[in-house]
Amino acid sequence: MPPAHARQHVFSNFVSTLDGVVSLQVRGHAGGGDISGFSIQDRMVMGLLRAIADVVIVGTGTLEADPQHVWTPEGICPDLADDYRALRLALRKRSAPLNVLVSGSGRIDLDLPVFTSSRVQTVVITTTAGAKQLARRKTPPWLEIHAVPRCRRMVPPSSILDAVGRMNAGNRILIEGGPQLLGEFYARRLMDEQFLTLAPQVAGREYGDARISLVMGQAFPPSGMRWGALSDVRRGGGHLFLRYTFRRA
User: Fold this and answer.
1) Distance (Å, whole) CA 14 – CA 187
2) Is 33 exposed, middle or buried (0-12, 13-18, 19+ CB in 10 A)?
3) What is the pLDDT of residues 55-108, one digit of tens each?
4) How far apart are CA 243 and CA 249, in angstroms?
5) How far is Cα 193 from Cα 243, in angstroms, rounded to an integer?
């Protein structure tokens, strides 16, 4: 991955079925594990990308799909915890990437491990209304809350990156979802790279069902499709591990 000294380098990681489903949106089966078949290779790649990231950004939908999770390398692949720690040490990074949760409403459960665990520093980026909502509740003293001014519903991706930049946490920014948050970054042309694991299964869809794809909430016209360049392909068993580069605005 190129150095990220001059500006932020934004990349994302998802797993998808052959027919483009990234979440079944079924209680207890909404995470990526059901999509990848709990592939150890996929979890290894997820941990590797977190290990080189300075910041991991997730939305409330991702948090709700896996509420007990903490977005650290060893959190997804504990078998390689020592290797990930050694890599971060060699890269002169903090012990764990900064976890950033984006919530427009501020309606989140602050008792979850990502907020209470001593393993990771967490920041909530929200709207002014969301900050007021959180202010009514007892928050851990170490939890930082950043309110984006003049923002009512959804926090713009540029404001998220600006807020992260002011934290001086580092310039390698990993987006782990959800699809609506990722769609906002693609819509603003703020993505540098997309890592995509293609799992060898077909999920299917009913008309109007809740199953979702990589990008949601955005529909790009034929003249404005987001084209990427394939930069790497790996195979692990029946899974393909794809890497694409995109041109930033």
Assistant:
1) 17
2) middle
3) 999 999 899 989 999 999 999 999 999 999 999 999 999 889 999 999 999 999
4) 19
5) 7
Tokens of 218: 């955005």
Lookup: tokens for 177: 């979802």
Q: Is residue 160 scored above 80 in pLDDT?
A: yes
pLDDT given at position 125: 96
- Rounded CA-CA distance 193/9 in Å is 8
What single-letter amino acid sits at 33? G
Distance between CA 51 and CA 172 in Å, rounded? 10
Determine which of 49-53, 92-96, 152-156 has the lowest per-residue pLDDT on average.
152-156
Distances (CA, A) of 228 to 135, 162, 231: 41, 24, 9
The answer to whether the beta carbons of residues 181 and 67 sit under 8 Å apart is: no
Which element (helix H / strand E) includes 122? strand 122-127
Token reading at 243: 């890497």
**Beta strands per DSSP E along 128-246:** 144-148, 172-175, 193-198, 229-236, 239-245
Cα(8)–Cα(13) distance, rounded to whole angstroms? Answer: 16
pLDDT in tens, 12-48: 999 999 999 999 988 889 889 999 999 999 999 999 9
Rg (CA), the chain: 17
Q: Which amino acid does the sequence have at 247?
A: R
| DSSP H or E stretch at residue 103 | strand 98-103
